[in-house]
Design brief:
Blueprint lengths: L1 E11 L5 H12 L2 E6 L5 E8 H13 L5 E10 L8 E3 L1
Parallel strand pairs: 2-5
Antiparallel strand pairs: 1-3, 1-4, 2-3
Helix pairs in contact: 1-2
Length: 90
């Protein structure tokens, strides 16, 4: 079943390769969506795909790349949009 999730990762998540890390993980899973930096220093991502894959991606986001320090991840489940065909960095 296709699901969509929005995550906001907080902590030391900008300038440490976090978006590239997420894009590689999501792309390898075949998840669609995007990741981008927000002005407050957090990183937002929306991902769409099989719910079990999204839950696996959530685990990766909570850890992040080695140089990151994730302090919190806010999660919001949404209705799928079926508009992205890949996962991109914005």
């Amino acid at each position: 079943m296709v699901s969509r999730v929005r995550m906001i990762a907080e902590g030391l998540v900008q300038g440490v390769g976090f978006r590239w890390f997420v894009a590689r993980r999501a792309g390898a899973m075949g998840v669609r969506g995007y990741v981008r930096n927000l002005y407050d220093g957090s990183v937002e991502l929306e991902a769409e795909g099989d719910r079990s894959l999204l839950e696996e991606l959530m685990k990766d986001v909570r850890i992040g790349p080695r140089s990151a320090h994730v302090t919190n991840v806010r999660i919001e489940w949404r209705d799928p949009l079926h508009k992205e065909s890949t996962f991109e960095i914005r």
